[in-house]
C-alpha cells in the first residue's frame, strides 16, 4: 500500500477551496499524514512590467512592492482564517504564502518539503478558459501523484 506522509493543499482562497477541504481532510486523516498549505499570489511586479510604459519611474516600482507586501500579509491572515474554519483538528505543519508563478511555486514546494501527494481543486471551466489551468500544469509536471477535485 502507498503511504502518504506529507500532503500539499495549494489553497486558492476562492470558492473552490472550501469544496476541496473535506477531501483534503479525509485523505490526510486516513493516512495520518502531515498537511502543508500553500497559497501563491501572482507577483504584482508582473502587472507593473506589463502595464506601466515607463519602467524608469521607480516610484511605481516602490508602490508595487509595498502593495504586494500588503497583499501577502492579508493573504496570510485569510489563510489562517480558512485553516481554522475548514481544516480544524488536522496536523498542519506549515501554512505558507508566497508570490510567483503558481504552478512553479507549487512544484518547487513539492521538492523542497518532500511532499508525497498534492490535493487541489481543478477550477471552473471559465477560470480555465481565461487563465489556463494551474491544476493541469501541476498534474502534468508533478513528480508525485496529484488528486484533482472538480469544483462543480
In DSSP terms, counting alpha (H) and pi (I) runs of 4 or more, how many helices? 6
Low-confidence stretches: none
Question: By helix and strand content, what is the structural category?
Answer: alpha/beta
User: Rough shape?
Assistant: globular
How many β-strand stretches?
5
**Neighbour order of strands in the largest sheet:** 3-2-1-4-5
Taken in chain order, the helices and strands follow as EHEHHEHEHHE
Identify the notable features of this structure and list them briefly.
single chain; 152 residues; alpha/beta; five-stranded parallel sheet; 6 helices; 5 strands; 51% helix; 20% strand; globular
Description:
There is one protein chain. With 152 residues, the chain is of the alpha/beta class. The chain is built from 6 helices and 5 strands, in the order βαβααβαβααβ. Strand 1, helix 1 and strand 2 form a beta-alpha-beta unit. It is globular and about 55 Å long. The chain starts with 5 loop residues before the first strand and ends with a strand. The mean pLDDT is 85.
Summarize the structure.
This protein has 152 residues and is α/β, with parallel strands linked by helices.
Amino acid at each position: 500500500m502507498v503511504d502518504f506522509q506529507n500532503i500539499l493543499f495549494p489553497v486558492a482562497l476562492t470558492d473552490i477551496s472550501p469544496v476541496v477541504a473535506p477531501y483534503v481532510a479525509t485523505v490526510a486523516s486516513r493516512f495520518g499524514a502531515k498537511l502543508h498549505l500553500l497559497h501563491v499570489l501572482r507577483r504584482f511586479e508582473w502587472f507593473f512590467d506589463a502595464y506601466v510604459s515607463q519602467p524608469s519611474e521607480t516610484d511605481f516600482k516602490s508602490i508595487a512592492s509595498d502593495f504586494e507586501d500588503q497583499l501577502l500579509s492579508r493573504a496570510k491572515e485569510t489563510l489562517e482564517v480558512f485553516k481554522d474554519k475548514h481544516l480544524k483538528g488536522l496536523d498542519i505543519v506549515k501554512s505558507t504564502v508566497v508570490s510567483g508563478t503558481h504552478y512553479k511555486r507549487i512544484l518547487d514546494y513539492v521538492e523542497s518539503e518532500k511532499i508525497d501527494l498534492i490535493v487541489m481543486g481543478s477550477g471552473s471551466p471559465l477560470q480555465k478558459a481565461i487563465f489556463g489551468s494551474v491544476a493541469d500544469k501541476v498534474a502534468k509536471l508533478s513528480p508525485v501523484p496529484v488528486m484533482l477535485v472538480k469544483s462543480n
